Known about the structure:
Structural class: alpha/beta
CATH architecture of the largest domain: Alpha-Beta Barrel
Number of strands: 21
Mean pLDDT: 92
Strand content: 25-35%
Distance between the termini: 41 Å
Amino acid sequence: MTQGRNEPASSERRSPSRRTVLATMGALPVLTATASTVGTSGAAAVTAAATAVIDPSAQRQTIRGFGGMTHTAWIGDLSAAQRDTAFGTGEGRLGFSVLRIPVPENQTDWSRDLATARRATELGATVIASPWNPPARMVETFVRGTQTDAKRLRHDMYGAYAQHLNDFNGFLRNNGVNLYGISVQNEPDYAHDWTWWTPAEMVRFLRENAGSIGTRVIAPESFQYRKNISDPILNDSAALANVDIIGAHLYGTQFADFPYPLFKQKGAGKELWMTEVYYPNSSDSADLWPQALDVAEHIHRAMVDAEFQAYIWWYIRRSYGPMREDGRISKRGAGMAHFARFVRPGYVRIEATANPASNVYVSAYRGGRSTVVVVAVNKGTSAVSQRFTLANSTASSASSWLTDASRNVAPQGATGVSNGSFTATLPARSVTTFVAA
């Protein structure tokens, strides 16, 4: 993504950008949403749902975290208070555990995002980095279709570029930030304003040069999770050996395209991350309700259907992002916090009945030996009486937090668990997180 084309600072509420249109086209039709409060009784009808069975022994992917990006050069840095809101885990915090930063092409700019990266690290977050362009001396222009000034990395500069990435990694390490991973290129297949890479060029760099990079290597970060960009990496054993994380963006990606069978077949020992998205658009306020529920469903599908291990938003602080410009958590941010605050790095997604009722989405995660986190999204217009059964569980209670039209991740107290089961009312148009122990 680039600010200049997609996100003009003064006009983000104008007509949607091409990316916004893609994102809208890629989503499934918006379902009518509703949610009720946990345990609430009242005149509104309550629909009974099938039991959501959760099996802690059926383990899926290990979660690395949820987070967002800071890009000081384009929108300014987070303030000290905003950093704590983003990466803190207490009440009123987002609970982010991943920060993504850019790799500036000029070394003189490498300290721009350092303050936020340091604070995120102090609060326990993982930091990754993505470049938009190599240093200018390494780039050549070429004709690509109708674009006469397209940019690409010169083939004789592949080694120098790997060293550039290594040097950035070393700079951060020497300044108190250990990068978890560094990308080869942000969106190599959507690069009208930055540097293009073909799949063959990406494979060549990975085969011949990426092995010298001193941290985990992320590739290819296709803007739309296009498998024709990542398939060649998975199908080339030498390139794959030098990749640690298959990274993808989800702009306009249809839910039907979330699963990745080839990764399941050939990605053993590798990680699968969603490294950038905003959803469903960048034109509406992040507090628009019930549209903000779309974010919670999107994360659910990214975890359950795509089996991503990380989910990273675009700008952390933006009118359409998880944090408003005034530093307060938005409704979209509350939806993210239902996952980020409670599903911590190292937790493992476990099997759960994903769709126990129409418009209800359930995912579950295990932390340590006994903690089970359940996130339930009710996009329907009626409250749902939802029974949860935790297989072979010794949990005695489940604490819960709720977001609906009037509340943001509000504590709801504890519900008793008997023989591994409990029942709760999911308010219409709501997100509820349960923590059973």
